[in-house]
Design brief:
alpha/beta; Rossmann fold; three-stranded parallel β-sheet; globular; binds glutamic acid
Length: 279
């Protein structure tokens, strides 16, 4: 049976872009007679807040969406992600990185597909003594995937991209995770990262169709790599259009896009939001 999910991060209030993504996902789940699941991706303790999680549930209910309970909360699954990270470590694919943000920026060898500094590999070949000394000293540490080794081990990476309708011809794409360099698998403040948690949970929830915005197309290449390394199934992916503001820019929390709550206060009904999103 098809299983879809909407997986927002509770680090702010939902805006029209999120509403579009949630409605798109639910629409296709219903059309295919599948399940629509909700998952809160709240692993980042510095940005995620329980009040945003509450607000997300309330806004989605207001929009008329429903999902099976309990909602999966990633913050309750840190031990599971740590076990998966351990598997990568046992394969010799993780290494500790002690670099600060500014050190990463200074040694960057370009930018990754998200426009962030591409890690220059400063800590890739630290000696065992240096690692032991810095860990014993309690230096903040994150763990990175050795991208080149991981890709060599995984071999050719392909995945399926399709509109969710069964009539659409699926395309087989090659993943190009090398563009990301050595991504962080375990962050300094939590034993996981977005990339690790998302692939572990898409498998745990038996997701068959991942529907996400086009802006997340490049990160899918890392997800496919992790799925192969960890022996997890790869769902089909659909990259939907983004809702743009008047200036043609993607709506974003940081650029002050009006939230669903703002719109509600201005008198928008849930039906108005659905119409604006095209559902
Ligand atoms: N949690 C991610 C976000 O809010 C999206 C999840 C995904 O589709 O992988 O940006």
């Amino acid at each position: 049976m098809p299983v879809f999910r909407f997986a927002p991060s509770p680090n702010g209030y939902l805006h029209l872009g999120h509403a579009y993504s949630a409605l798109f996902t639910e629409h296709w789940a219903r059309r295919l007679g599948g399940d629509f699941l909700l998952r809160l991706e709240d692993t980042d303790p510095t940005r995620c807040k329980p009040e945003f999680a509450e607000a997300i549930l309330e806004d989605l209910r207001w929009l008329g969406l429903a999902w099976p309970e309990p909602v999966m909360m990633q913050s309750g699954r840190l031990a599971v992600y740590a076990q998966y990270a351990e598997r990568l470590r046992e394969m010799g694919l993780l290494y500790p990185c002690f670099c600060s943000r500014s050190e990463i920026a200074e040694a960057a060898t370009g930018t990754d597909p998200d426009g962030a500094p591409l890690y220059g590999g400063t800590c890739r070949h630290l000696s065992a003594e240096t690692i032991a000394r810095r860990l014993a000293r309690g230096d903040p540490v994150q763990y990175r995937l050795d991208g080149a080794r991981a890709i060599a081990r995984a071999g050719v990476l392909t995945f399926t991209v399709a509109q969710p309708t069964p009539l659409d011809r699926p395309q087989i794409r090659y993943a190009r995770p090398a563009l990301w360099g050595d991504v962080v698998i375990q962050r300094k403040e939590t034993p996981t990262s977005y990339h690790l948690s998302v692939v572990v949970d898409d498998a745990a929830q038996a997701i068959t169709h991942v529907t996400r915005g086009r802006d997340m197309e490049p990160s899918t290449d890392i997800h496919v790599l992790l799925q192969i390394l960890l022996g997890l199934p790869s769902p089909a992916y659909t990259f939907h259009k983004l809702i743009l503001d008047e200036g043609g820019r993607k709506l974003s929390k940081s650029k002050g896009a009006p939230t669903l709550r703002n719109l509600r206060e201005e008198g928008w009904s849930a039906a108005d939001v659905r119409t604006r999103a095209g559902f």
